[in-house]
């Protein structure tokens, strides 16, 4: 069996086109353009690259750029004050605090200050609670992207056995409940799982999000399974995922490549979240 390779770039391009149309529809209705405030503290090169990409992509779909940059010497109070200013700014639909923040700052505490209705990363405690209880709210971008890929490629989650490897707040913890709310039976695996290969080999849908290069080989994969590789690991051979792509692609039914799989979807769903936040804010204002 040769797996079908999931084209994350193509799906992300479609989502971005839909977002661009939604932006213009909202501008026509409200007279206000959705705006994204990216907050960068310090001068970490990788963070600068990530933020630059988010800003550029936002502008490409018509989202206003409200970027804020604070020096690495900024205090916890300085960053908190900036977040509060963005919370109160009606031109800012979504707020994204780029993590990690410099040493000496508490990124979790700062993220928690973002209003849930502007939490386009879906990382605040309130957003996490809404995921668990399946309440309306913004969801983390990478799990949303995973679901979008599965839906696009016709993978039915109803009654499927889904295994998620990794329990980070960014991916594993929110993705498990999101899959369960789609009526999948979910197994969460992590570094203390006793027999990881046996657990993974039972999965109809296998999501690797552990951050370990080529952790999952062919023996971990049920024949015909849908394999979603969230991992992005820099090695001497270049970027590789958490899945050993070559052997696994001979066994799986569907598989995401690295790069070009989940990565483009994370950014596309950030844009989608920003427009969804702007729409919800406008609808609330109109009701009042």
Written overview of the protein:
The structure is a single chain. With 288 residues, the chain is α/β, with parallel strands linked by helices. The chain folds into two domains: 31-116, Leucine Dehydrogenase, chain A, domain 1 (Rossmann fold), CATH 3.40.50.10860; 140-264, NAD(P)-binding Rossmann-like Domain (Rossmann fold, 3-Layer(aba) Sandwich), CATH 3.40.50.720. Helices cover 42% and strands 15% of the residues. A six-stranded parallel beta sheet has the order 1-12-9-8-6-7. Strands 2, 3, 4 and 5 form a four-stranded parallel beta sheet that branches. A two-stranded antiparallel ribbon has the order 10-11. The longest helix has 26 residues, at 262-287. The chain starts with a strand and ends with a helix.
Number of domains: 2
Strand order of the largest sheet: 1-12-9-8-6-7
- Mean model confidence by pLDDT: 97
How far the N terminus sits from the C terminus, by CA atoms, comes to 57 Å
Strand content of the residues, in percent?
Answer: 15-25%
Classified by CATH, the class of the largest domain is: Alpha Beta
Secondary-structure content class: alpha/beta
The secondary-structure element order is EHEHEEHEHHHEHEHEEEEHEH
The radius of gyration is 19 Å
CATH fold group of the largest domain:
Rossmann fold
Fourth-tier CATH superfamily name of the largest domain: NAD(P)-binding Rossmann-like Domain
Helix content, binned percent: 40-55%
* The CATH architecture of the largest domain: 3-Layer(aba) Sandwich
Shape estimate = globular
Query: Can you count the helices?
Result: 10
Biggest β-sheet description: 6 strands, parallel
